[in-house]
Amino acid sequence: MHRKITYTFPRMGYSYAAFESFFKILGYDVMVPDPSNSKTLKEGVSNSPQGMCFPFKILLGQFAKLLKENPDKYFKIVSLESYGPCRFGYYSPLYNKILEDMGVTNFEVVNVEGIYPPWYKGVPRFIKKLVKLVGWHAPWAGVRAFVIAGWKVYAVERLERKFYHLIPREKVSGSSEKAFNRAFERIHHAPNKVKSIKKILNEELKKMDQIDHIDDVELPKVGLVGEAYMLMDYSNNLEIEKKLAYMGVDIDRSLWVTNWTLDRLLKTKQHLKHMKEVNKGYLDFFIGGDGQESIMNTILYKKKGFDGVIQVLPFGCLPETAAKQILSNVSEDYDVPVLSLSFDEQTGDAGFVTRLEAFVDMLKSRREIKSKESKAKKAESVTTR
Ligand code: SF4
């Protein structure tokens, strides 16, 4: 029996709206896995090798649910090809092996990889993988799908950043969230035209600006570093950004789909060089995953005046575990508090919120002490003049 292909891929927070458009423009069916819940997590964990990292277990549970609930469909699971020496390289063969052992056979895994130098080899290899992923299409159709998806990712990220900026400043609690949810839905279902996406984005940003809020307020600033998939998908990290924002924190996430894609897939050489320079003396060689970025971004956050950094560390992640050790030196040398939060299937809301609150309280009292010290210094310099 011929079954129409349905594409699926990791949700990656709100960015799924863009990936969905990409495949739909090319004429394919798309189904996005639901966010994790206790049932999918249990299934992912119980079928994964014990030592495998947590993101794999999350994804396995989500894909298994989707594939089992739709036995009449044949899925192409889109997976990113390995980037360096971490467990990422095992994802595709393990999906194949484990899902088949679970009796699920209505799928194949297709890998996407970046364009790596030398270009004369990298570009043909990239095109070959792309053709394997989506088949042959007129070049303009592929370019159009890329451009629309790119604009949707950009629009969603602009709205999300605005949303986290507004939460700690809003006068009516929940008003920014309501506005963001509406804006996201409009972008998600926007007609596949750049003009329409731009128009909706501008309209929604203006509406968000009109939310009753206090702009002139000094808040503690916290940067988020860590493993990309855990950082980018709010359902994996227990909505850490939203929680911090509601605690009155100015929050900034270091990795987004746009900068990750540019750095990892298109500007690899420059990105690695920059990282090597910033991380000199700490970790100036590649260890896989996003461990090196975690060090670099912590240093950069401190240089930009942030009060603290939180590392999102999935259980079983070797690069982030290595980074955690080095971050304690960075924290001491640069005088920047760093909180490393490990996530696994046992991580629950209650203890998690308590740790965040304690960290935020500590940052607030550090700010107060620093401000008192600087006032005292100023007063001293005036009296001695
Ligand atoms: S970076 Fe860490 S969590 Fe991500 S695939 Fe590699 S080992 Fe797993």
* Weakly predicted, low-confidence segments: none
Small molecules (ligands, ions, cofactors) in the structure: iron/sulfur cluster
Helix content: 55-70%
Can you identify the CATH class of the largest domain?
Alpha Beta
Taking all Cα atoms into account, the compactness measure Rg is: 22 Å
Strand residue content: 5-15%
Give the class from helix and strand content and strand pairing: alpha/beta
Describe the structure in your own words:
The protein is α/β, with parallel strands linked by helices. The chain folds into 2 domains: 33-136, no CATH class; 218-385, Rossmann fold, CATH 3.40.50. Helix content is 57%, strand content 11%. The chain contains 15 helices and 8 strands. The chain has helices spanning 16-25, 38-47, 54-69, 91-101, 119-134, 139-166, 175-188, 194-209, 228-232, 240-246, 257-266, 268-278, 291-303, 318-334, 349-384; strands at 5-8, 29-30, 74-80, 107-112, 221-226, 250-253, 308-314, 338-343. The strands form 2 sheets. Strands 2-1-3-4 form a 4-stranded parallel beta sheet, sandwiched between helices. A 4-stranded parallel beta sheet has the order 6-5-7-8, sandwiched between helices. α14 (318-334) links the parallel β7 and β8 (338-343). α2 (38-47) packs across α3 (54-69) and α6 runs parallel beside α8 (194-209). The protein is globular. The mean pLDDT is 91.
